[in-house]
Amino acid sequence: MTRHFDAAIIGAGQAGPALAARLTASGRSVAFAERHLFGGTCVNTGCTPTKALIASAKAARMIARASDYGLTLDAPARIDWAALMARKDRIVAASRDGVDRWLANMQGCTVYRGHAHLVGPHGISVGGEEIEADNIYLNVGCRAAAPALPGLAKVPYLTNSSILALEEIPEHLLIIGGSYVALEFAQMFRRFGAKVTIIEKSDRLVSREDPDTSHCIEDILRTEDILIKTGAACIGIDGVPGNITAHLNGTEKVSGSHLLLAVGRVPNTADLGLDVAGVMTDERGFIQVDDCLRTSVPHIWAMGDCNGKGAFTHTSYNDYEIIAANVLDRESRKLSDRITAYAIYIDPPMGRAGLTEAQAKATGRRIASGMRPMSRVSRAVEKGEEQGFMRITVDLDSSEILGAVIIGPGADEAIHSVLDMMAARAPWQTLQHVMHIHPTVSELLPTILGELKPVT
Ligand SMILES: Cc1cc2nc3c(=O)[nH]c(=O)nc-3n(C[C@H](O)[C@H](O)[C@H](O)COP(=O)(O)OP(=O)(O)OC[C@H]3O[C@@H](n4cnc5c(N)ncnc54)[C@H](O)[C@@H]3O)c2cc1C
Ligand SMILES: NC(=O)c1ccc[n+]([C@@H]2O[C@H](COP(=O)([O-])OP(=O)(O)OC[C@H]3O[C@@H](n4cnc5c(N)ncnc54)[C@H](O)[C@@H]3O)[C@@H](O)[C@H]2O)c1
Question: Where are the catalytic residues (predicted)?
Fold first, then answer.
């Protein structure tokens, strides 16, 4: 028998559970389908486990640098891989179980554990049961891409999921890709003692960023003896477990014990029955949505990574807020109101808000930037973490803050000073006149706004 609900949500990622809570609180009945692990990518194979491991890696790095701080160790620290992974697993399990319990105990929410797919505009089949819902919300996320590289199918390779279950530290980790996933795992495994080689096809790492940002990040990684091969499209792979060779540009090869693919993500939409319901996707499989995250079928909405409009936990959660505002609060919050913001959790981290300097320049506006290296930021010097810089870019005519980048200690937090001012649409002079706390990285933001130089 088909059971009817006011709403159905597919996928317990970063948007679905919070939306279920709002929908049920408004008196609506909700069917919730999750086929694998509650909490999705962020909790199980993304942010949470990687940031837990990065914390261990930071501790290892600080111990290795003990003498820089005037400390003498009687013996070098040993990595207890099992204990370190157990810490990560405990943190992940607590978070996952929290989401699972939250949904299971939610009044008005019926949880289905299984793969769900659309069988009509309102119909869903999940784990052999048929349900129907007035409105459907898709939060199905993405998975690691595995491009059709010659030879790849014949060698064992790791993704962001399987690398988190390794039973030992690789001797030499080859990483294909040179962006978020690659860099966070590269530095972490280097700090755990692995030799690491990054293979990136663009001519610089994180090529969406300004060139000086890429070069600064390359310097940070090279300081720790991470090998970086840019302009190096991997055109083939061969080898056996424990000895894998990547062939680059047809001219060079590099061998390692393990291979990690970090070349982007593909949406989990091919097995969702979208065509049956008439939901349109783009050529890469991302679900097409309008500015309020409605799909081509008006009662079906798509949120999180699967709509291709963001690829972060905070963008997924913001999608939930946009949908809740439109559906439940009669507020017209929109995707286009969102200011780009993200961090890369290398150490020191990079925090970004708004446009890069190159993007700001490309708008054709009259712009200026203020910048300062971390070597001239007291807090960074005192912490012994002088790599990095900060830059803020403004519109000289409207006084708008257009964007900022901070690479340095606490940059992932400090960037919010700029982001919040941008959200408030405050002119840059407002930020310049705020008294900031000393000694912090943020206290130099007003200073660099007093040293703006036109960008031509
Ligand atoms: C290694 C790594 C590190 C990351 N670190 C960060 C970070 O530090 N900060 C940050 O902001 N972002 C980070 N991200 C990105 C972040 O994890 C994702 O953007 C975020 O998790 C996306 O959430 P989502 O809600 O779109 O979907 P997901 O969290 O991917 O959840 C989708 C859920 O849907 C389920 N599902 C899929 N299809 C079906 C179906 N047919 N039926 C039932 N259930 C289904 C899946 O099992 C999954 O549980 C990281 C990603 C990776 C890979
Ligand atoms: N700190 C964070 O917030 C965080 C951390 C990890 C992941 N994420 C999210 O996960 C998503 C996926 O990250 P990602 O790093 O896998 O993807 P990405 O799309 O950001 O980068 C992929 C990189 O791989 C390179 N590449 C592609 N094919 C290649 C080839 N054949 N040879 C060599 N290089 C190749 C690309 O040029 C690019 O630099 C990101 O969009 C990000 O939003 C976020």
Answer: 438 (proton acceptor)
Helix (H, G, I), strand (E, B) or coil at 352: strand
Pure H helices in 224-283: 274-277
Instruction: Fold for 343-455, please state it.
Output: Enolase-like; domain 1 (3.30.390)
Which CATH superfamily groups domain 3-143+266-337? FAD/NAD(P)-binding domain (3.50.50.60)
Q: Is the pLDDT of residue 234 over 80?
A: no
> Could you read off the pLDDT of 309-357 as tens digits, one per residue?
999 999 999 999 999 999 999 999 999 999 999 999 999 999 999 999 9
Active site residues: 438
Do the domains 343-455 and 3-143+266-337 match in fold? no
Mutate to test the pocket of ligand 1, among 19, 38, 42 (most ligand atoms within 8 A of CB): 42
Distance from the alpha carbon of residue 264 to the mean position of ligand 2, in angstroms? 4
pLDDT bucket at 197, cuts 50 / 70 / 90: very high
Taking the CA of residue 310 as reference, the ligand 2 atom at the shortest distance is: 43
- Statement: residue 50 has pLDDT above 80: yes
Q: Which atom of ligand 1 is nearest to the CA of 114?
A: 43
- The model's pLDDT over 404-453, given as tens digits with 9 standing for 90+, comes to 999 999 999 999 999 999 999 999 999 999 999 999 999 999 999 999 99
Name all residues whose Cβ lies below 6 A of ligand 1: 10-15, 33-37, 40-42, 46-47, 50-51, 115-117, 139-142, 160, 181, 268, 272, 304-305, 311-314, 316, 345
State residue 233's pLDDT score: 82
228 Cα distance to chain centroid: 21
Determine the Cα angle at 442 with ends 436 and 443, to 5°: 45
Asked whether the whole model's pTM tops 0.95, one would answer yes
* 439 upstream amide cis, omega within 30 of 0: yes
Neighbours of 94 (CB within 10 A): 11
Residue 100 assigned to a binding site: no
Nearest CA to ligand 1 atom 47: 36
Find out whether 178 is annotated in a ligand binding site.
Answer: yes
What are the extents of the domains in the chain?
3-143+266-337, 152-263, 343-455
Nearest CA to ligand 1 atom 48: 40
| Start-to-end CA span in the chain (Å) | 67
Calpha distance 162→260 (Å, rounded): 9
